[in-house]
Amino acid sequence: MTGVDAGALGLNLAVSAGAALAVMLLTFAVATVKGVHRIVDVAWGLAFTAVAVVTWFLSDGYGDEGRRFAVVLATAVWGLRLSAHIARRGRGHGEDPRYARMLARAPGSPTLYALRTVYLLQGALVWLVSLPVQAAAYLPSPLDVLALLGLAVWAVGLFFEAVGDHQLARFKADPAHRGRVMDRGLWSWTRHPNYFGDFLVWWGLYLTACGTWQTAALTVVSPLVMSGLLIRGSGKRLLEAHMAQRPGYAAYTARTSGFFPRPPRRRASGTAAR
Questions:
Q1: Closest by alpha carbon to 164, among 139, 184, 149?
Q2: Poorest-confidence range of 77-81, 175-179, 242-246?
Q3: How confident is the model at residue 22 (pLDDT cuts 50, 70, 90)?
Q4: pLDDT tens figures, 215-238
């Protein structure tokens, strides 16, 4: 790859895989002792942060300082905010119904099934999705227009994700809203501002890795995989399947964009809550 030390980047890829795996295995041990596997969702952002920290140290002397600092900091800010939000949201709750249903159908040992299908899979996904962060840190060229555009896209994504999460948390905290759908603020423009924000975050980080055509080609799998997870995988599709039978949700979906933001068709209140 032009300008990129392939050997150093290869070492980074290997060590970062170990870092992501270590976070997931430690989380698995804690979850097994506590009997609650929902904490793996907290580990998702922490694992990305671990990969970013490893990349920061290993890329020293290889990549441009400004680009290294920007992509590592952006990843850590996103990951730590997400983990803190999920930890606050899950405090005091038992097992996530998704994991309870999955483990109830597990062939053989539920614990080993969780290790294979949740923790190891998520560790592999962290490594795969974080490819742009790792590659960008080894680009010797300073931040260019494309990279700055990527950071701007990342910032818009973080805004959608953080503000959407905050708005929903405040809405659900009010007892008067029990049984109602959140259709205000960003949630009136898209049914999934947090997932849309995640989508922008990873396409933005991908743009920071497009300093050469080789790194662009190597890392495009990252935003594509993340987009698939958010829209067709464990994100939007599963949540909407869960919400589909709730009163008022059909009316909400009829007036509100399913993913990409647009003005709502009409202003109205629903009758279901997330």
A1: 184
A2: 242-246
A3: very high
A4: 999 999 999 999 999 988 776 666
**SS3 of the chain:** CCCCCHHHHHHHHHHHHHHHHHHHHHHHHHHHHHCCHHHHHHHHHHHHHHHHHHHHHHCCCCCCHHHHHHHHHHHHHHHHHHHHHHHHHHCCCCCCHHHHHHHHCCCCCHHHHHHHHHHHHHHHHHHHHCHHHHHHCCCCCCCCHHHHHHHHHHHHHHHHHHHHHHHHHHHHHCHHHCCCCCCCHHHHCCCCHHHHHHHHHHHHHHHHCCCCHHHHHHHCHHHHHHHHHHHCCCCHHHHHHHHCCCCCHHHHHHHCCCCCCCCCCCCCCCCCCC
